[in-house]
Structure formats: structure tokens, C-alpha cells
Specification:
The complex is a heterotetramer, with one copy of chain A, one copy of chain B and two copies of chain C.
Chain A (H helix, E strand, L loop, with lengths): L1 H9 L5 E8 L4 H15 L4 E8 L2 H13 L4 E4 L4 H13 L3 E5 L10 E5 L1 H15 L4 E7 L4 H15 L4 E8 L4 H14 L5 E3 L3 H13 L7 E3 L5 H8 L8 E2 L5 H13 L4 H6 L4 E4 L3 E2 L15
Parallel strand pairs in A: 1-2, 1-3, 3-4, 4-5, 5-11, 6-7, 6-8, 8-9
Antiparallel strand pairs in A: 10-12
Helix pairs in contact in A: 2-10, 3-4, 5-6, 7-8
Chain B lengths: L1 H5 L1 E12 L2 E12 L3 E6 L5 H8 L7 E6 L2 E3 L4 H6 L2 E4 L11 H5 L6 E2 L2 E2 L1 H14 L15 H14 L4 E5 L7 H16 L3 E5 L3 H7 L2 E6 L2 E6 L3 H4 L2 H9 L17 E10 L3 E9 L3 E6 L5 H8 L7 E6 L2 E3 L4 H6 L2 E4 L3 H5 L6 H5 L14 H14 L16 H14 L4 E5 L7 H16 L3 E5 L3 H7 L2 E6 L2 E7 L5 H9 L5
Parallel strand pairs in B: 3-10, 3-11, 6-9, 9-10, 15-20, 15-21, 18-19, 19-20
Antiparallel strand pairs in B: 1-2, 1-4, 4-5, 7-8, 11-12, 13-14, 13-16, 16-17, 21-22
Helix pairs in contact in B: 5-6
Chain C lengths: L1 H9 L2 H29 L7 H26 L7 H20 L1 H20 L12 H12 L6 H28 L5 H20 L3 E3 L3 H9 L1 E10 L2 E6 H19 L1 H11 L1 H6 L4 H27 L1 E3 L7 H11 L11 H20 L7 H19 L3
Antiparallel strand pairs in C: 1-4, 2-3
Helix pairs in contact in C: 2-15, 2-16, 3-10, 3-11, 3-13, 3-14, 3-15, 4-7, 4-8, 4-13, 5-6, 7-8, 7-13, 9-13, 10-11, 11-13, 14-15, 15-16
Classes of the chains: A alpha/beta, B alpha/beta, C mainly alpha.
The structure holds adenosine-5'-triphosphate (2 copies) and magnesium ion (2 copies).
């Protein structure tokens, strides 16, 4: 990559520029992403950052193109969707721009570093946790998220798990849009429909909070438990405090974006990109971990927005 | 033409039309003969427009049949009617504000070249038609900027552009001054010579008697009388009026009593950019001052300027000798000035709302205690319905469903209900039948005698002459002269209005 | 002559259908849902009082907004900003409340941070001063202590309500100002608001949530209701008629009176049906219009604080999303003309219920996630279509 | 006599300002952005040809939609469904293309699955038959082979374009039908469409994305352009005038002619300005209206397939979100009257550019994420406000 060499030598001359492109906050988790990204950026004042959020792939492509015009040396991208972003990422790479790809991979290996959270594992692990907790039998309701690839990955993975337990009866699946109000509404309807529910697979902690309230109001706390996901601080707190309705949670830490930002900064900042990159793994998988009362404390960040 | 007159061009048998809340046509039968001018008269709400709308394919009859030159027809839409050679000038001008005069005239029939509208030919054709109706504006003008009368001229030009064999005119002259009316009559003459059949609706009986070969009289949705070629010349205005209203009518201008003293309204050096230039005059209490002029003389603009509805480029308005700063209609109304606008559809009425709501629009405060007391509203409205002979099933009827003339009466009622110190009326009796005109004249007279001052803008010259204490004549936005009733004659006024030196 | 007319008035079918149309649509919808549930799922929970009350509670918030929207649309305008405004107002309400309730804690936290910073400086290392709470908020906290306003929970709640209403009303007034004095199309002004108000909420909440520092008291209203004696949803849990619904119905009633029998209401119709004529009739069009948008704002504020109370939190990014579309849909389904001039509150209330039933129906019939949009869209259109076809042209 | 009048019309300032207003707004916006970038960031990338071309490419898609929206709004209607329709059409386009290109593979996969199933049955265990591709799609694949349509990549692309256009045009026609024959308010019909079309896309894609099986050929158009000789954005990467922009401008030009100098165009204005008058003039109002919505659909289809080509994929849940609002904003910013009757394509094009500049400005001035909505909202309103205030009432 001759183009790269050029950039690498040119770099020290001026402040390094890094662009961070992430999805717009349309629910708690994405809001958390923005928060963590900013937090990480302020820790590298020596870098000239620019942050852009996009509510759809087209906007995100535009953002990245703008960053290229600004002449960024590196990009940190959490793609709204994989496929649409691949061409533009490719274009960036051809220009010798260093790319850290977080959470949602491109269709082609265009990223210098790919740092992913595993949505399938997310679905699988949380589902297994729920199934075990149910003792392999009982009735279950599923709250899905904003319909999109992430949601599909998680739900399909979870359903595969539940299929393996013939005595677990799935009463219904409705979208709660990873959102508290919707979680509340949908859960109310489920409660009105079904006389006994053993567990709620809520997939997301915003949805969980809504569902929890609905259950409280119907006075059926003792009947069932809920498992959400993503490790929102309040929910982690509940787990920590051994809330009977919230036996556990599963991480999908928005802080992963911070990791991406740090990586990018440390690779690019002092012009030793080529050298540093040598010692950098191309693919980092952030495991999704179960949060239980035992380990909850390690996942509790009271000052985070999420 | 003689033999063609034998077989009727158009035959209507037992046509009936009922609207929710009104019976417009009850078993109407009549025959229209080719190459003749048929007058159609009747009280407001008699069913004239509805009948014509059926012929023009806008309304569909409930029962009965229409036979056009031997073939029974049932028009589904205006296109069908036009296809079979029927064109109509509607009582309410219906033009597209955002298009030009030319585009309006040929709307739906634009000349095209390779699929593109051919503007040159469009304008040429339009210009020709505008000349025929002797209009003072070009084809490229946007209709939005035209006055009501000018719009009417566009409608006429549009209607003749179809060169139809049956041309229906629903009160074409209601807002035209004698000058344009004259031009229209000549036009009708030419059309008649070309063998065009014409149905002419009007409340101006002298016109009808002068113009028409036959006269059909309608009442309560029925054809009551038909006067043929021989009877028409022998009929007087009084008799015709009697046939319409079903009772004899007196000479309809009540005698005027002397105007009072003291200036109710004084206007000094009033100007509106492009329309009105340095107009000054006073209106005394108990006086009616008439404003005559040709179309575009700027009378409406002047009135609107007084009301604060138009930007004044200069001028002061004083009420009861005190200067008032009028910036909006609200200021004017607060100062006691009322303005009955000439465009009842555009600026006068809320057609979708009930008669009562419209009548009390200005005086609503009086019916609030604190909530609107609808019973009172309705009673007050019924008062006007009876007094002005408004044909409406009740106060809650939507004004839009009333006949043109009845709408006009509602508009008048609305402004009387405000009981203003100074009332400016612009074409107050537009489309109103003589019976009701009588009432209105008497009413105005009474109010004036009680001390109200009135500015009467009207294109009906004898109305102006008959009612006013003084007659102001405007021309091209300038106030030419103010004549006293005594020496205000038709010729004199017309001379000043047209700007020809007095003989 | 008048007699036959009075008669024929009774048979004014189009008007009848127009009035009853929405009602019929609602009944059909409920019936169909109940039947389908029986046939497909061999259950009948849909018609349970509990579920009906759920629907009522869930849609009272949209309902309150829709009432305001009815005035806006009748006046010939539209307001797309309500959803964002609702979130913004509710959020700021909670924010104020928390500031007041947590005043002392908040001041102490900052004091600590400063102390630490001072020590660092003394120790020669210059980390930046990071206050856990913004200085502005700190000063507000000081105020709320000195003025004794709401460091106690109840007072805090009152403060929340006030703040939300003030913010929302002001925002509505601003919309009105731009539309009347600025003569900018309502669609554009409120489209701007749609973007702006949410952005403000997110900026304050840093993209996150506003969480009530007073769960029980603040939350009790939105979640609570009036217990129906002798009725229980579960042992110990009485069946409750939801508070938000009571508020909604009261507002709707007041609005109906306002629209039908006050000058204001009359003028709103007049402006919507023919603005020029309204001007000529000496109506203060600008004042009526801005009043209308201000009222809309105020109602959005009420909805906002109630949603906040309902969930004891407001998600700056999500709360109230698409409320504007639901509200407008409800209004039009209720028979109000989109072009303005005529319409009624009763219809709107029914429109809201129709939306509510659709929402719950999708759930009770287990309509697949991806097809819900299709079903909802089709039902809305059909609901209106039936009304129209009912009337002959 | 008519001299003064003709005069008073020649100096019709409001009209002049109305015409030039958007242009001025655009110029001011660009200037301000460029200056601010220099002052705040000591850089000047904003005015680079590359960036200008980026803006043009990014907003050509909204632009194409906005052109159609101009007709819809002038005719007195509105179309909220375009964003969803765009996604739906683009998605189905890709879906068809893939079906054709992958035909053989797809058939084999299913064949294998069946074989396996048969073996299982033989072996006595009865797992359900799970086809990797739906049977419907399989039969389509068979067809595309037998008819020789597009198992080759180029033919596949052609198929994609056709499919997208057919779907979108039909959808638009359907909107028109419901609005004219069904007499349902455009807002409601297209609100239904907004929900329905996207839902269809999601149902087909299972909530995921449609990925082009032909990256290079299919993607080349949307991402490519006409190279400007001698200009490079980076070594080896020539500066290109974007293809989508060329399409956009051609469409805009054609539309301008259509609107100003064909009968159809005149009738659209007439209907929007005074429908009754149009009816009286024997214009087939229903036909003109449904033509307009059909045209809107067709253009949404073009935009859809171009977005798909640009990104070589369509995200069923996200692609085209909020396009409807952007398009409407562009139209109104361009000076078209929201109530219909008058407006122009030129204005719309400028309106689109204004939106584009705002979008890129937010990035180049590094406006904080959460405040972007606020800034964008304010600028849009101000842009229109300036035009209005320019004219005296
Ligand atoms: N759209 C409608 N809905 C209900 N009633 C209507 C409608 N149009 C007309 N009518 C009624 O039909 C009757 C006849 O109306 P029409 O307009 O034909 O009277 P007209 O003879 O034209 O009166 P004018 O001389 O005032 O124009 C009136 O009572 C009117 O109220
Ligand atoms: N908004 C406008 N812009 C430009 N010219 C206008 C506008 N409104 C009216 N005019 C012109 O001003 C002139 C005066 O119109 P106006 O209606 O006052 O005449 P008038 O004396 O009332 O005649 P009419 O008998 O029609 O009432 C007309 O030629 C009209 O075309
Ligand atoms: Mg009539
Ligand atoms: Mg006049």
C-alpha cells in the first residue's frame, strides 16, 4: 500500500485527525455509544477528533465522505448496517485511511482492526441463562427490538436455544423497540392475555424496565422473572441487589466504542502507524458476559448515562 | 331560423331535484328553441341556477328527462355537456387564481404543439376574446389580481370561446357597469345572429325585457309562466316583477329624506399604490353617498383602503371629526365602520359554516354569556331570514347550500347585525331579486334615517341614482366629481365615468 | 314550503354517516378483533375490563395531544413538533424536580469535586476540574434551597409539573409566533420544532434518560387510577380506572365546549374554512392562530409530564417518537377535515380509541413483528375509506 | 386605463423576492459555512470540488423524490410514503436481481435440502423440511432460467431496475386510487403507505438488509461518475461528477418543462389552486391526481434503485427513513406553496441543495451530535423566514 506510506510520513507534520462515525441515539444503548465515544475522545486531546451520528446508512455514508474530505488519517466506524457501509469503507481504505471497525463488520475485510460484539452469542447466552433458570419448562414471552439485523441475529440465536427445550412454551413475540414505553405497553398486553408466564426474554434493558413496571402494576411480581441485556447501570444495580425479578443480565457494553477510539488514537497519534499496526491483531472479539449477583459489581458504572 | 324555431333545441320534462334540506326543482318542464334568447327569471332560490347546473352536467336531476335536439341526454359531468355544445357562465365566478387570464379561458382546451402548450397562440386567441368583451386587461395577467367584475368578464370570454350552440348565462351582469353590460348585449346580438341559443338569467328586469325573445318565470322550483315572442314586448317591468314575486310591487326606490348634519366619515387625500389616487370626500350622518364608475375605477380598492384591508400610500380617515388610525379591519370595525365586500364567496362568507354563525360573526360577543347562547343566535338569525326573505330551511343550514342571492342577503344581514355608524356596501344587491331589493333599500333608508352614514358602491347606476343623496364618480382611481342627486343624471355620470367631456 | 325541507333535513344521510362513521369503524374493529381472537387463539382476553383499561391508559397521552391537534388542524394548520416537545417538556420537568429534590446532594458533590481539584493543584498535578453536575444546575439547586421551593418531594413534583407546562406552552407560543408573524408554513415551522425540541432534550440529558429522583410519589399518578370496588386483576391488586384517562376525558370535554360554544372555537373554524373572510370579518386571525399553537403546546406539556410520571423516566431519544403522526391520524380518522374548517372533539376521541384498539389487536392476534406496519397501515386507511364510501358524493 | 395596472404588476416585488429568496438563502448559507470553517477550524475543505460533488451525490436521491413531491404538493396533496416506498422498491429490485443471478445456486441449495429431507424420512427421523430459499423464490429462479432473463449479471441489473420501477409505480398508482376514487385524505393514505411499504420490505428481508449479489456492476453506477480530466482527490482516484446527480438534474429539467408547458402541468396547478374550477372546466381531476401520485411513485422507484446501487444494499428498516420530510422541506423551502396551486421545480432543486449544505455544514463545523437537530431545525425555519420577511404582505 504505497498510499499508506505517504500518509504515515506525512502524519507527524500536523495534528492527527480521526473521524468517529456512529449510529444516532434512537434508544438507550446507542445513546450509551455516543456517551462512551465522547468520553474516550476527551482523553486524547492530542488528536483532532470529529464525531458524527447517523440515523440511516445513507447519512452515515455522507458523514464518512465528509470526513475523508476533511482529510482524516483514521476512522472509527460503528456501522448502522454492514452492507451499505462496505463500499465507502473500501473507498476510505484505498485512500490509505486507517479503519477501526466496531461491533458490526463489513462484508469485506477492509478494516485494519475489527472489534466486534457478538450478537449471536448475545442471543444464545441470554437464552440459555433464561432456559436454565426456568428449569427447562414453563411459558415464555419474547420482547424483540427495533426490527433490524442486530435484532434478527439475537432473536434467531435465542429461538434456536429455546427450541432445544420442548417443555418451554413460547406464548408470543412482540417488538418492544428496545424502548421503555413500548416494553411497558407490550408487556401489559401479554399480561392481559396470559394467566401464567414463567419468564420474559426482553433482550434489552430499556425494554426490561418497562416490562418490569407492567408486571409490578399487575401485582404478578412473584410469578415471573425478566432477563434483558446490554448492561444498563440501573439493571446491573438490580442484579447486584439480588432483585428477585431480575436474576441476571448480559453485557453488550456500549463502552466497546471507547476501546475502538483508544485503539485508533494509540495507533495513529505519533506517526508510527505502520509499526504499531504490525503488533495489532486484526480481529478482536469482545465476549458478551453474563452478569450475575456475584460479578455484577464489576459491570456497574454509576456515572455512565447508560 | 323560423323553421328551426319549430322543433325545440332543448326539451325538459318533469325534471326534479331535491337537496338535503331543500327542494330545488319540482317537476320542471320547458322547451328552449334554437336561435332565440330565453330569459329566465324568478325569486332567489327559485331554482334557476340548479336547473342550469343540470343542463351543464354539474348537478344530476333526481327524476325527469332532458332531450337535446331530439336525443335524450343525461350528462354525468361538465365534459359531456360541453361535448354536446352547452356552455355556461356560472353565477359565482369560478376561476383559478394562480393561472393567467388566458390559461383560465382555455383551461382544459389549451392549444398544444408537439404536446407542449403553445403560449403564443393561447394569448392571441385570448386577446381576441377579451377585446370582444371589451376588457381592460391583458391575457397574461394573473387572475388573482383581478377585481370581481374583471373576473366576470373573463368568465364571459371563456364561455363564448366554446362557441357552443346553447350558451347559458347566470346573472352575467350582476357586477358589470352599464358600459360593459352594453358590450355584452352587442355580443349576445352577434351570437344570436350566428344562430346560438342563449338562456339568460338576471334579476335586472329591464335588461331581460329588452334582450329576450321569450321569458320563463320560475317560482319555488316550478315554471309558473312562459311569455312568448308576442307577449314579451307587451309586458312591463312591474307585471314581470309581479309574476315573479306573486304580488304587485311599488316603484322600488323609497323617497329620500334630507341628510343630517355633521361629518360621520371624512377621507382626505387617500391613495393606494397602483389603484387609487388622492381621493377626498366626506359622508354626513344620515346620508347615502353613491360611488359610480367603470370596472377598475378603484372603488373597491378605495373602500378596502378605508377599512385598513389595503396598504394606504397616503391619506387620513376621520370618524365623527376625530382622526382614527386604521391599520386593519378590526380597527375600522372598532371605529364603527362596516364594509360589505363585493366578493361574497372570497372575502364575504364562510360557506361551510351555518347561516347563524355567519350572521353573528361580527357580533358574537353579544351572544356570549360566557358561552355562546345558540338559541339566541338562531332567533336573531330567523329575524333576518324573515325580514330579508332569505330562503333557508333554518339558521343551522350551511350558507354554501343557499342560492346565490340568498347568500348575498346573509352577507348583508351579517353587516347589519354589527350595526355600524358608517356602512360601506360594495355591490350590496348583487344577484338579489327585486322583491328583496325593495326590502334592502327600505332597510338601508331606515337605518340612514336613524343616523347611519352609508357609502354605496354599485355598478347598478339606477340603484346609485335612486338611493344616494350625492353621487361620486370615480375614474381610473381618481375621484372625478361629486354630483348632488338633483343634477345627477345617467348621461352625466356615465360621461364622467368614461372620461368624456360633458356636452 | 319550509315543512318539506324540515322533513327532508332528517334524512340528511351523508351528514349522518359522517357523524357516525368513526363510531361504526370502532365497533367493527373491536368486534372483528374479539371474534378473531376467539377463532384463532380460542381465548377471549381482549374484551376484559383490564385490557380495555390498559388501552385507555396507553393512549390517553396520544389522546391529549390529539385534542390539541384537532384545534390546530381545524384552524387549517398542522403541528409535527408535538412528539419532540412532549419529550422535551417531560424531560425538563424531571430535570427540574431532581435538581430541587437532590439540591443538597448535588451541591455537596460539586463541593467535593472542587476540593479534590484544589488538592490536586496543591499536589502539583493538574488534572482538569470535572464537576459531576453543571455549574448552572448547581446554582439552580442553591436557588431552590434559598426559595424553599421543593427540596421536599411533593414540592419537587409540583415544580416538575410547572416546569413542563411552562416550557411546552412557551414552545407552542413560539411556533405560533413564527407561523403568524413570520408567515412561515406551519409544516415547516413545526418540522423545525420536531428536530429542535428533541435535540434540546438530548443535549440536556447527554443523549440518555431523565430519571425521576422521586419514584413513588411522582410515579404514583401516571401509573395509578381509581379502584373499581370489588374488582381485582390479581389478588390484592384492584382493577383501576386509569388517572391519565380521567385527565384525557376531562380535557376532551372542556375542549369540546371550547370548540363548539366559545368565540375562540367559532373563530378557529372561521379561519380554517375561509381565512380571508375571517380577516374581512375583523377577526384577529394572528391572535387566534397563535393561541391555538400555544394551547397545543400546553397540552403537549400535560401529556409530557404524564408520560414522565407513567414511566418515572423520559428517554430523550425515544419518548414520544411519532406521537405527531398518531395524533394527526386520530384526528382525521375522527372525521376532521385535513384542510381545516370543520371537525369535532368527539370524533377525535373515537379516532384515538381506534388507534388504541389497533395497537392492542396486533398484540392479541400475534401479528408478526415485520407485518405489523402493514396491518396497521391498511386498517387506518380502511377505517377512513369505509366512512367516505358510506357517504355518497 | 390598464396602464397603471400593468405597471403595478411589473413591479410585483413579492413575486421577485419569492423567486430569488431561496437562491439568496443558499448563497448566504454557503458563504457563512465557508467563513465559519475558516475562522473556527482554520481549514477550508467545505468549498472543495470534492465536497461539493459529495453533497450533490448524497442529496440527488432526496432530490429526485422532491421533484415528484413538488407535483404532489402543487396539486394540493402530500405523500408521506415515499421514504418507505423507496426502500421497498430498491429492496425488491435487489431481491429480483439476486434471484436471477443466483438462480442456479438457489435451485441447487433447495434441491440439496430436499434430498437431505428425503434421506431423513428414509432413515425414519422426521425433521421438518427447511428450505434455505422460499419455494416462491425458487420458482422465480426457474422462470428466470427458462426465460433466459438475467442469469447473467448485466441482465440481472436490468431486471432489478425494472422490478423497482414497476413496484414503485404500482404503489404510487394505488395511493392515487385511494385518494381519488376512495376520497381518503392524502395524508392518511400515504401515512398508511409509510407504515405498510416498509413493513413489506422488512417482511421480505426478515428485518435485515437486501445485499446485491453483483457488487461491481450494480454498484458501479450509483457510486461512479464522470471523471473530470486532470482532477484527482487522491493519487489514482479521479474527481468525478456523480452519476446520480446527472440523473437528478435531467429529471428536474424534464419535470420543469412538464410543469410549466404541458397541459398536465397546467392542470396540476389548476387543481391545487381551485379544484371546483378545474371540474367545471371539464378537467378529469381524478385522472390528473392519480397520474401525479403515480409519477411520484415512479420517481421514488428511480431514487430507490439508485440508493440501492449507491450502497449495493438496502436496509429494510432504515434506508430512506425520513426522506419524506426532507423532500417536503426542500419543496417548501424552494418556495412552493404548502396549500398547493403554485410552485416550481427550480425552487425545489435549490431547496434540496440548501438541505445538502446544512447537512454537510453540521459535519464541517463539528456541531455537537445532540445539538445538530437544533441547528438544522433553526436553519430550515430561518431560511424560509427570510424569504417571507423579504416580501411585504
Ligand atoms: N348544494 C346544495 N345543497 C343544498 N341545497 C341547495 C344546494 N344548491 C342549491 N340548493 C337549494 O336549491 C334551491 C334553489 O337554488 P338555486 O341556486 O337554483 O336558486 P336560484 O334560482 O339560482 O336563486 P338565485 O336567484 O339567488 O341565484 C335553494 O333553496 C337552495 O337553497
Ligand atoms: N391585488 C391587486 N393587485 C393589482 N391590481 C389590483 C389588485 N386588486 C385589484 N387590482 C386592480 O385595481 C383596479 C380597481 O379594482 P376595483 O375592483 O376596485 O374596481 P372597482 O371600481 O371596484 O370596479 P368593480 O366594479 O369591479 O368593483 C382593478 O383594475 C383591479 O384589476
Ligand atoms: Mg342562482
Ligand atoms: Mg368593486
Amino acid at each position: 500500500w504505497p498510499a499508506r506510506q505517504v500518509v504515515a510520513q506525512a502524519a507527524p507534520a500536523r495534528k492527527v485527525k480521526i473521524g468517529v462515525s456512529i449510529p444516532a441515539a434512537d434508544h438507550g444503548w446507542t445513546a450509551g455509544i455516543a456517551w462512551w465515544a465522547k468520553r474516550a475522545m476527551v482523553l486524547h486531546p492530542e488528536v483532532d477528533w470529529s464525531l458524527a451520528t447517523a440515523q440511516n446508512p445513507e447519512k452515515q455514508i455522507a458523514d464518512i465522505e465528509d470526513m475523508m474530505v476533511k482529510g482524516v488519517d483514521g476512522l472509527v466506524i460503528l456501522a448502522t448496517e454492514s452492507a451499505p457501509l462496505t463500499p465507502v469503507a473500501k473507498k476510505a481504505r484505498e485512500r490509505g485511511i486507517h479503519i477501526v471497525n466496531v461491533d458490526r463488520g463489513f462484508l469485506e475485510p477492509v478494516a485494519d482492526v475489527f472489534l466486534e460484539g457478538d450478537n449471536k452469542a448475545f442471543g444464545r447466552k441470554s437464552a440459555e441463562f433464561v432456559a436454565k433458570r426456568m428449569g427447562g419448562k414453563g411459558s415464555l414471552v419474547i420482547l424483540s427490538g427495533i426490527p433490524c439485523t442486530v435484532d434478527t441475529d439475537r432473536v434467531t440465536a435465542a429461538l434456536e436455544v429455546f427450541k432445544r427445550y420442548p417443555d418451554i412454551n413460547i406464548l408470543g413475540q412482540q417488538p418492544a423497540f428496545w424502548n421503555r414505553e413500548k416494553g411497558l405497553t407490550v408487556m401489559q398486553n401479554f399480561l392481559a392475555q396470559h394467566k401464567n408466564i414463567t419468564a420474559v426474554w426482553a433482550q434489552d434493558d430499556d425494554s426490561l424496565l418497562g416490562a418490569k413496571q407492567a408486571i409490578k402494576e399487575s401485582g404478578r411480581e412473584k410469578e415471573m422473572f425478566i432477563v434483558g441485556g446490554a448492561g444498563m447501570k440501573d439493571v446491573v444495580k438490580m442484579v447486584m441487589d439480588k432483585d428477585p425479578m431480575v436474576p441476571g443480565d448480559i453485557t453488550y457494553p456500549p463502552s466497546m466504542i471507547a476501546t475502538g477510539v483508544h485503539l485508533s488514537a494509540s495507533i495513529l497519534k505519533d506517526g508510527k502507524r505502520a509499526q504499531v499496526q504490525k503488533f495489532m491483531p486484526k480481529h478482536l472479539m469482545i465476549d458478551v458476559e453474563l452478569i450475575t449477583p456475584e460479578n455484577a459489581a464489576d459491570y456497574y458504572f454509576p456515572e455512565s448515562v447508560y | 331560423m323560423e323553421q328551426s324555431a319549430q322543433i325545440p333545441l332543448l326539451q325538459i320534462d318533469g325534471l326534479s331535484k331535491r337537496f338535503p334540506g331543500a327542494i330545488a326543482l319540482a317537476d320542471v318542464s320547458l322547451s328552449i328553441h334554437a336561435g332565440q334568447v330565453h330569459g329566465l327569471v324568478g325569486e332567489n332560490g327559485a331554482g334557476k341556477s340548479t336547473l342550469m347546473k343540470v343542463l351543464a352536467g354539474i348537478e344530476r336531476g333526481d327524476s325527469g328527462r332532458v332531450v337535446l335536439s331530439g336525443k335524450p341526454v343525461a350528462f354525468e359531468n361538465p365534459a359531456d355537456a360541453q361535448a354536446s355544445g352547452i356552455a355556461m357562465i356560472h353565477q359565482e365566478t369560478n376561476l383559478v387564481d394562480d393561472l393567467t387570464v388566458a390559461e383560465n379561458i382555455f383551461l382544459g382546451r389549451e392549444p398544444t404543439r408537439w404536446g407542449f402548450v403553445n403560449r403564443r397562440r393561447l394569448h392571441e386567441a385570448a386577446r381576441g376574446l377579451l377585446k370582444q368583451v371589451d376588457a381592460g386587461f391583458g391575457p397574461a395577467v394573473k387572475v388573482r389580481t383581478l377585481s370581481i367584475a374583471e373576473r366576470q368578464l373573463v368568465e364571459i370570454a371563456k364561455a363564448i370561446s366554446f362557441d357552443a350552440r346553447l350558451l347559458i348565462m347566470d346573472e352575467p351582469t350582476a357586477v358589470l357597469t352599464s358600459h360593459e353590460t352594453q358590450a355584452l348585449f352587442e355580443l349576445i346580438g352577434r351570437l344570436k345572429d350566428r344562430g346560438v341559443t342563449i338562456i339568460y338569467i338576471s334579476h335586472l328586469l329591464p335588461e331581460v325585457l329588452r334582450l329576450c325573445d321569450k321569458i320563463i318565470v320560475m317560482r319555488d322550483g316550478r315554471v309558473t309562466t312562459t311569455l312568448d315572442e308576442k307577449q314579451v314586448p307587451a309586458t312591463t317591468e312591474q307585471e314581470l316583477a309581479g309574476l315573479m314575486v306573486g304580488r304587485p310591487l311599488a316603484d322600488h326606490f323609497p323617497t329620500r329624506s334630507a341628510a343630517g348634519q355633521g361629518h360621520a366619515l371624512e377621507v382626505r387625500d387617500l391613495s393606494v399604490a397602483g389603484c387609487v389616487y388622492n381621493v377626498s370626500f366626506v359622508v354626513r350622518r344620515g346620508e347615502i353617498i353613491g360611488f359610480a364608475g367603470l370596472i377598475g375605477a378603484g372603488r373597491t380598492e378605495m373602500a378596502e383602503a378605508i377599512m385598513g384591508l389595503r396598504q394606504r400610500s397616503s391619506g387620513v380617515v376621520m370618524v365623527d371629526g376625530k382622526g382614527v388610525d386604521i391599520r386593519s379591519a378590526r380597527d375600522a370595525v372598532r371605529a364603527g365602520i362596516g364594509y360589505l365586500s363585493e366578493d361574497r364567496k372570497g372575502t364575504g362568507l364562510h360557506l361551510a359554516m351555518s347561516v347563524a354563525a355567519n350572521v353573528t360573526m361580527l357580533s358574537l360577543a353579544r351572544y356570549c354569556r360566557p358561552l355562546i347562547h345558540q338559541a339566541d343566535e338562531d332567533n336573531a338569525t330567523r329575524g333576518y331570514i324573515d325580514r330579508l326573505r332569505i330562503r333557508a330551511s333554518g339558521p343551522r343550514r350551511a350558507v354554501g347550500t343557499l342560492s346565490g342571492g340568498n347568500q348575498q342577503k346573509v352577507l348583508l344581514a351579517k353587516w347589519l347585525e354589527m350595526n355600524p355608524k358608517i356602512l360601506i356596501v360594495d355591490e350590496p344587491t348583487r344577484g338579489v331579486d327585486i322583491g328583496a331589493k325593495e326590502e334592502i333599500y327600505a332597510l338601508l333608508r331606515r337605518l340612514v334615517d336613524e343616523g347611519m352614514a352609508c357609502m354605496l358602491i354599485s355598478s347598478e347606476l339606477n340603484e346609485v341614482l335612486g338611493l344616494s343623496h350625492r353621487v361620486a364618480v370615480m375614474r381610473q382611481g381618481r375621484l372625478e366629481i361629486i354630483l348632488n342627486a338633483a343634477d345627477a343624471t345617467e348621461q352625466k355620470v356615465m360621461h364622467y365615468a368614461a372620461g368624456v367631456a360633458v356636452a | 314550503m319550509n315543512v318539506p325541507i324540515e322533513n327532508s333535513r332528517r334524512w340528511d344521510w351523508p351528514a349522518v354517516v359522517e357523524r357516525l362513521g368513526p363510531m361504526l369503524a370502532l365497533i367493527v374493529l373491536v368486534a372483528v378483533t374479539a371474534v378473531l381472537e376467539r377463532l384463532l387463539k380460542h381465548e377471549s382476553h381482549f374484551l376484559k375490563a383490564e385490557n380495555i383499561f390498559n388501552i385507555l391508559r396507553q393512549y390517553s397521552f396520544v389522546g391529549i395531544v390529539a385534542v390539541g391537534m384537532t384545534f390546530v388542524i381545524i384552524s387549517g394548520g398542522i403541528d409535527l413538533s408535538v412528539g419532540s416537545l412532549l419529550a422535551c417538556a417531560g424531560g425538563i420537568g424531571i430535570w427540574m424536580m431532581n435538581t430541587a429534590i437532590l439540591a443538597t446532594k448535588l451541591i455537596n458533590d460539586n463541593a467535593l469535586a472542587r476540593k479534590e481539584y484544589a488538592e490536586n493543584v496543591a499536589a502539583g498535578l493538574n488534572l482538569p476540574l470535572e464537576l459531576p453536575w453543571s455549574a448552572f444546575r448547581e446554582s439552580l439547586a442553591h436557588w431552590s434551597i434559598t426559595l424553599h421551593l421543593g427540596t421536599s418531594e411533593p414540592a419537587g413534583v409540583v415544580l416538575a409539573v410547572l416546569a413542563a407546562l411552562v416550557v411546552a406552552t412557551f414552545a407552542g407560543w413560539l411556533n405560533g409566533l413564527l407561523i403568524t408573524r413570520g408567515r412561515v408554513a406551519p409544516f415547516i415551522v413545526t418540522l423545525g420544532g420536531l428536530a429542535a425540541f428533541r435535540s434540546i432534550a438530548m443535549a440536556i440529558a447527554d443523549g440518555g434518560e431523565f430519571r425521576s429522583a422521586s419514584h413513588d410519589l411522582f410515579g404514583s399518578f401516571g401509573a395509578g387510577g381509581i379502584s373499581i370496588p370489588g374488582q381485582y386483576v390479581a389478588e390484592g391488586v384492584p382493577l383501576q380506572f386509569p388517572n391519565p384517562t380521567i385527565v384525557f376525558l376531562v380535557i376532551a370535554l372542556a375542549a369540546a365546549v371550547l370548540l363548539r360554544s366559545t368565540r375562540y372555537g367559532r373563530y378557529v373554524c372561521a379561519i380554517g374554512s375561509n381565512e380571508r373572510a375571517a380577516v374581512y370579518s375583523a377577526i384577529n386571525v394572528n391572535r387566534i392562530k397563535s393561541l391555538t399553537y400555544t394551547l397545543m403546546g400546553f397540552l403537549a406539556g400535560i401529556a409530557g409530564i404524564m408520560v414522565a410520571s407513567r414511566t418515572t423516566a423520559v428517554t430523550s431519544s425515544a419518548t414520544g417518537n411519532l406521537y405527531e403522526l398518531d395524533a394527526i391520524a386520530a384526528v382525521v380518522i375522527g372525521g376532521t377535515r385535513m384542510q381545516g374548517g370543520s371537525g369535532g372533539i368527539a370524533g377525535t376521541v373515537i379516532g384515538v380509541l381506534i388507534l388504541g384498539v389497533i395497537g392492542s389487536m396486533l398484540n392479541f392476534l400475534d401479528v408478526s413483528t415485520y407485518l405489523q406496519g402493514l396491518v396497521k397501515g391498511v386498517i387506518i386507511v380502511v377505517a377512513v375509506l369505509l366512512q367516505r364510501l358510506g357517504q355518497k358524493r
